[in-house]
């Protein structure tokens, strides 16, 4: 946990004394000093007060070492642009770079997926992920690849490697487009999204497979959003049926339904009624 160092760093960057901050938060200076020096742990009310004072989410205060952020990222945080706090334009992201100082594409394979839910903001966790480069992708954007499981997004098959571009501003999530979303409750999910964050504080998630019902993802449960770019799979997708083939399939289904109806009707006529 990085809370003590973070609140001390933020206070000093604002050129505030402990008395200044303690007065603003309606707490004793000795209490704040205890938090900054790891002598005491703040309760829920104190965490909320610190989060509101610095306009930074509790998640970020606890889990992100702000001293390791780039100056531009820290500056954005101090102006209130914490993606966990507001869902907007801050890129607070643990990442890795190659020998040319270019950002890698980290691979979160199926085995690493469970750990990603808690380790996504931990540089040490991100550092051990496999990395690679794709020369046809922009070097000005951040990408990460995730291995999906299940058949909710068929015809994209189970086990495919799906690459996403990091979304800094959640208000840019476009209806009807595919995204990889990291949530508290369900971990990583790959879905078609409709954006209701501004009006209802949630995203609506749809599957490509019509057998799966859409559901809502609360904005407060979202931790990362990645815009779908492409996928890699060793499986060949099934061929699309021609119009003639579709018509033949529908006709055969109708024949099968008619046959079932006739059998039900026949059985209802020949079976004796039970004695009353």
Overview of this protein structure:
The protein is an alpha+beta fold. Helices cover 37% and strands 20% of the residues. A hairpin with an 8-residue loop joins strand 7 and strand 8. About 2% of the residues have low confidence.
Task: Record the strand order, biggest sheet.
Answer: 2-1-3-4-9-5-6-7-8
Mean pLDDT: 85
Helix content: 25-40%
Q: How many domains would you count in the coordinates? A: 3
Question: Which word captures the global form?
Answer: elongated
What is the CATH C level class of the largest domain, in words?
Answer: Mainly Beta
Distance between the termini: 75 Å
Tell me the number of strands: 9
Low-confidence stretches: 86-91
As a percent range, the share of strand residues is 15-25%
Superfamily at the CATH H level of the largest domain? Umud Fragment, subunit A
Number of helices: 11
Radius of gyration, CA atoms, in whole angstroms: 26 Å
Structural class: alpha+beta
Q: Which sheet architecture does the biggest sheet show?
A: 9 strands, mixed
CATH architecture of the largest domain: Ribbon
What order do the helices and strands follow?
HHHHHHHEHHEEEEEHEEEH
Q: What would the CATH topology of the largest domain be?
A: Umud Fragment, subunit A
């Amino acid at each position: 946990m990085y809370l003590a160092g973070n609140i001390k760093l933020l206070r000093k960057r604002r050129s505030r004394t402990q008395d200044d901050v303690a007065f603003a938060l309606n707490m004793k200076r000795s209490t704040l000093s205890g938090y900054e020096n790891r002598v005491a742990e703040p309760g829920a009310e104190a965490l909320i007060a610190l989060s509101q004072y610095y306009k930074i989410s509790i998640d970020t205060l606890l889990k992100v070492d702000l001293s390791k952020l780039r100056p531009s990222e820290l500056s954005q945080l101090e102006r209130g642009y914490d993606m966990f706090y507001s869902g907007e334009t801050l890129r607070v992201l643990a990442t890795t770079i190659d020998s040319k100082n270019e950002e890698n594409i980290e691979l979160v394979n199926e085995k690493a997926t469970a750990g990603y839910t808690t380790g996504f903001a931990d540089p040490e966790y991100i550092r051990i992920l496999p990395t690679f480069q794709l020369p046809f992708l922009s070097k000005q954007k951040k990408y990460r690849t995730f291995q999906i499981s299940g058949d909710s997004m068929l015809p994209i098959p189970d086990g495919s490697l799906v690459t996403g571009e990091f979304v800094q501003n959640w208000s840019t999530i476009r209806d009807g487009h595919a995204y990889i979303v990291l949530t508290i409750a369900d971990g990583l999910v790959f879905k078609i999204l409709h954006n209701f964050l501004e009006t209802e504080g949630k995203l609506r998630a749809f599957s490509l497979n019509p057998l799966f019902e859409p559901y809502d993802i609360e904005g407060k449960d979202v931790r990362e959003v990645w815009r779908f770019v492409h996928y890699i799979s060793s499986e060949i997708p099934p061929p699309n049926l021609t119009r003639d083939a579709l018509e033949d399939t529908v006709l055969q289904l109708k024949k099968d339904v008619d046959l079932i109806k006739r059998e039900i009707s026949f059985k209802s006529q020949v079976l004796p009624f039970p004695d009353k």
